[in-house]
Design goal:
It contains five helices and eight strands. It is α/β, with parallel strands linked by helices and 156 residues long. A five-stranded mixed sheet has the order 1-6-3-7-5. A three-stranded mixed sheet has the order 2-8-4, with no helix packed on it. The longest helix has 14 residues.
C-alpha cells in the first residue's frame, strides 16, 4: 500500500444517493480498480419516472467517459476517489456548489477544473425524480448529452 491508497479489497465502490434518487437496477461492482479515481454518474433527472422504460433498456453494462453530467443525485466512487476529491478541494478550493464543480463542470472565469475524471454508467441504473423544489422556484430538468440508450427508452 502506497500513501493513502487502499488495496482493492478495501476499496470497493460505494453508491451515493441523494433524497430524490430512485435505483432502477442493481450495480455489479466487480471492477473497482477500473473505477478508481473516477466519479461515475448513474443517471438522469425526470419529472415522471414512469416515462423511462428501464426494463427494456436493461441493466447497466458499460461505463463511458463524460465531459460533464447534470445532477449529482446518484453516483459511484471508491474510497480512494473520495480521498482524491477531498485532497483536490483542499488544494484548489471552490466557492461554487460541488455539483457544479464535479458534475456539471461549469467554471467561472479564473476557476480551475477538476482533475477527477467523470464517467456515466449505461444503460441508466438510477434516476432523479424531480418534484417541487425546497430551495428553487422550479427544479432543474436540464440533462446534458443524453446517451442514446436513455433517449431510446424515454418517452416525452
Amino acid at each position: 500500500m502506497h500513501g493513502n491508497t487502499l488495496p482493492a479489497s478495501l476499496n470497493d465502490p460505494v453508491v451515493v444517493l441523494e433524497h430524490d434518487a430512485i435505483m432502477l437496477h442493481p450495480i455489479k461492482t466487480d471492477a473497482p480498480l477500473l473505477w478508481d479515481n473516477n466519479i461515475i454518474a448513474l443517471g438522469y433527472k425526470l419529472t415522471d419516472p414512469t416515462k423511462y422504460d428501464h426494463i427494456t433498456a436493461g441493466r447497466p453494462n458499460l461505463v463511458i467517459p463524460r465531459k460533464r453530467h447534470s445532477g449529482a443525485h446518484a453516483y459511484m466512487i471508491t474510497p480512494n476517489t473520495a480521498r482524491a476529491l477531498l485532497k483536490e478541494l483542499a488544494e484548489k478550493g471552490s466557492q461554487r456548489a460541488i455539483d457544479n464543480f464535479y458534475f456539471m463542470r461549469v467554471n467561472d472565469p479564473g476557476d480551475t477544473e477538476s482533475d477527477i475524471p467523470l464517467s456515466l454508467m449505461v444503460p441508466t441504473p438510477a434516476i432523479a425524480w424531480l418534484r417541487k423544489s425546497t430551495i428553487w422556484e422550479h427544479p432543474s430538468t436540464l440533462n446534458y448529452d443524453v446517451h442514446e440508450s436513455f433517449s431510446t427508452h424515454h418517452s416525452q
